[in-house]
Structure formats: structure tokens, C-alpha cells
Amino acid sequence: MIDLYTAATPNGHKVSIALEELGLPYTLQVLDLSKGEQKTPTFLAINPNGRIPAIVDRAADDFAVFESGAILIYLAEKTGQLMPTDAKGRSQVLQWLMFQMGGVGPMMGQANVFYRYFPEKIQAAIDRYQGESKRLLRVLDGHLAHHEYLAGDYSIADIANWAWARTHRWSGVDVSDLPHLQRWLEAIRQRPASQRGLNAPPSALDLRKDGDAKAQAFADKARTMVEMGQSAKS
């Protein structure tokens, strides 16, 4: 049994989707980020960085793993699924996983902060992070023009990138001119494990269905978490 400490964020959903794909039994420990539950001594003993997600593998002497990419690799290697075992195949998956960890996630995350959460609109910062997010999504689109998935068969690389790319509307990034990315987004969205993983836990907002008022309320709540993080750094 695996304990998953998480919240309804792209990084959190990476792990719940992977657990669903792998068919591993897990318990859901949902942390309220707005209340700072990720900063409690109990959770910091699992992840000293105080961020979700993290897991505790009860079947492996309560082994704790933090950082979403590290968790995905651990789960893939534990089960022998969602990542090839040969050196070249494994490297291809890890390249695209690192692409997400070092690029897509950080850039879209900063786009979210400046476009949605900061009380003042700093247009240069918004343009910078939306532009870089779009460039990275364009890289995915170009690769997917010639590949069904990012690295051979469906893998943790697809899960990691999809969990972020699917939220492009929240970052204010238009992908209507990226047909191959759209095809890939929809194909993974239709996977039963993706649908189950996105409900573990479910997001409070769906931009495809919810209106501007609900989006603003969600952003206002998220701004509290951003400000909390800034206070913790000062």
C-alpha cells in the first residue's frame, strides 16, 4: 500500500494518474495548501521541502519519496511499467520527463502566478512566461507530429507533460494552432486512468465548464497560497 500526500495540482495529479495506470493500491492523504498543512512537522518529516506530492511506500519499510518526477521514476521502476528497461528507451523517457520538470512545469507555474495570482499585472512578466510556455508546448507539438507518444509507448513522460499541458487555459496560453498537441491531449484525457487520477483529488475548477466568476474566486484563494509562500521565504 502506498500513502499519497497530495492536492489538486498538476504535480499532484501526475502521481495519482500514474498510480491508477499501474493499478497500485494507495490511500489518498489530501493536504489543504491554503491552511499550510504541507508545512506541518509531520509532513516535513516526509518531504523536507514542504511541497506536494510525496509518497510513503508501506510495502518497502515506509520508504518516503518526494518530488513528482522522482516519484514517477520510483513507481515505474518498482513495477517495471511505464518506462523501458533498456538504456536508450529509458533515456528517451527521462529526457522528456526532465523537459517537463525543468521547463513546462516551472514556466507554466510562473505564468499562472503572474497571469492569475499576483494582485498587480506585470505585463512584461506575463508575456515572458506565457511566451516561454507556448514555445515549450510548440516543441511538444512538433515532436508529436511524428510520434503517437513522447518516447515510444505511453510512459511517465506523457503523464508528467500532460498533467501540465492540459492546464494551458489557466496559464492563458492558446493551443488552437497546435493540432498534434491537441490530439495527444485528447487521447490521454480519454484514458480511464487519467480520468480517475484527475479525481484524486478533483480540481475545484474546470475552465472548460466554469465561468469567470468561479475562476476569479479560485484565483483569489490560490493567491493566499502564493503570498504564504512569499512570506515563508522572507
Automatic annotation (TrEMBL):
Leader sequence residues: none
Alphabetized UniProt keyword annotations: Transferase
Keyword Transmembrane helix: no
GO molecular-function terms, A-Z: transferase activity
Short name of one Pfam family: GST_N_2
Membrane spanning stretches: none
Residue stretches in coiled coil: none
Matches recorded under PROSITE patterns: GST_CTER, GST_NTER
Database matches in SUPFAM superfamilies: GST C-terminal domain-like, Thioredoxin-like
GST C-terminal domain mapped to chain residues: 86-213
Gene3D superfamilies to which the protein is assigned, alphabetical: 1.20.1050.10, Glutaredoxin
CDD domains named in the record: GST_N_Ure2p_like
Family: Belongs to the GST superfamily.
This protein's name: Glutathione S-transferase
Annotated source species: Rhodoferax aquaticus
